[in-house]
Amino acid sequence: MSNDLQTLPAAEPRTLTHVMYALHTITWFSGGIFSVVAILINLAKFGDLPDDFYRGHWRWQSRTFWFALLWFAVTSPLFLLFFFPGAAAWFVVGLWYLYRCVRGWIAFNDRRPMPV
Question: In this structure, is the dihedral angle defined by the CA atoms of residues 76, 78, 79 and 83, taken in order, positive or negative?
């Protein structure tokens, strides 16, 4: 019986990848909590991915999250100078984040790999 279980193909994480893209995309409305949930799933399940196609998309999501977090931290001192420069910088970083999420999600839906 255990031999039969070993020959089963790994489950394709297509739905989970869509859910993670959705969480990253709608994080604007949650103050970032949805992205934290998505990155925790990413960290926990990355090793279970069946192929490079999924690893590329999950890596794209992960890099988008971590670079956005970095840029939010780097631009935080702008709020100490004046509110507007900080708000403008965070808006630009947020737009970049949204762009990356939507771009990745569209590519995933079209079954196109993400660039390395």
Answer: negative
Domain residue limits, the chain? 12-109
Q: What is the pLDDT of residues 75-100, one digit of tens each?
A: 989 888 888 888 999 999 999 999 99
Q: What are the pLDDT digits (tens) for 11-66?
A: 679 999 999 999 999 998 888 899 999 999 999 999 999 999 999 999 999 999 99
Report the distance separating Cα 32 and Cα 69, nearest Å: 10
**Tally of residues, the chain:** 116
SS (H, E, C) 48-75: HCCCHHHHHHHHHHHHHHHHHHHHHHHH
